[in-house]
Amino acid sequence: MEEKKKKxxxxxxxxxxxLLIFLGLFGFYLYKTYKDIEIDTNKxxxxxxxxxxGVQTVEKEEEKSKTISDVIEETNRKVVGISxxxxxxxxxxxxxxxxxxxxxxxxxxxxxxYILSNEHVTGGKYSRCYVTAENGNNYEGTVxxxxxxxxxxxxxxxxxxxxxxxxxxxxxxxxxxxxxxxxNPIGFEFRRTVTSxxxxxxxxxxxxxxxxxxxxxxxxxQTDATINPGNSGGPLIYPNGDVIGINTVxxxxxxxxxxxxxxNIVKPILDSFIKKGKFEEATIGIYAYDKEVVPYIDSNxxxxxxxxxxxxxxxxDGPAYNTDLKEGDIIRKVDDLEISTMNDLRQYIxxxxxxxxxxxxxxxGKISRQIKVTLGER
Length: 378
Fold this sequence. Notes:
By secondary structure, the protein is α+β, with helices and mostly antiparallel strands. The chain is about 25% helix and about 30% strand. Mean pLDDT is about 80; it is low at about 35-60 and about 90-100.
């Protein structure tokens, strides 16, 4: 019995010794393994969160600034000068140069030479004008479409593989967004001048009085980016380069009030030229006004309407002349589209062709009715 206890005790001692040896070897292994590992302090830098945020903000601002400069340079290559005279000469710096020569600006909107500008710069349909590209090449252009009511025109030049602008969505613009205006103020001596500002307001209406004729431009984008004579027809762009408007006029009696035509209005027309090489313009045959304009044209008009457009005149022998549509009606819908402005109606009709049928929902007093109109050709 005693001998058995001695054996167990000896066995325990031996196990303890083996365990101690194992632990010693394991500890030695760990020591050898980690003592040779070097920590590269250059790879692990401690920084305060606040400082890191500050650095990132500065880097983003610098990146943004570079991006805007690059975008402007790219857009400038797609901006052209336009003149009604082939040789501008010394009159280029005249204060009335824009009126005398049609000096202005345009933008390339397709690779095969369609130029978007103002009608008062290029002249009406079938007019000839002269286009100067950024690289100095000169072209003779023919106006293939124009509309005096919205002061827009499309000119075709004989060219291929041109860089062209990207069109944005003017229906999504918001007040106080940053915008840039590019154009040729005064003349080509100051070509591709860039000014910056914000969108000051949407859907502005202005009264134009020229040669004893009064007209109204509606749904305009108001901006405080400087727009001078010669800027007409140039692009109003976002910082990413998207064109959201075409510069058209400024208020001469005030500073920092300029206007641009929303780009969406002309998209259906451009799309037709791109796909078909032509545009068959349909018309309802009416003159209608937004609610903001009605008090100017009829001081006795008492009816208030929140949506729709006021039919001021039905053109004799036009598409709507022999229908149930009457002067004084309020057009609220065309087909399934609710309309609030004349541009809403105009933009929709631009998607149609002559002889297409549309249905107008109108109100006359408290009565609402639907009227079918077969579109004519303008």
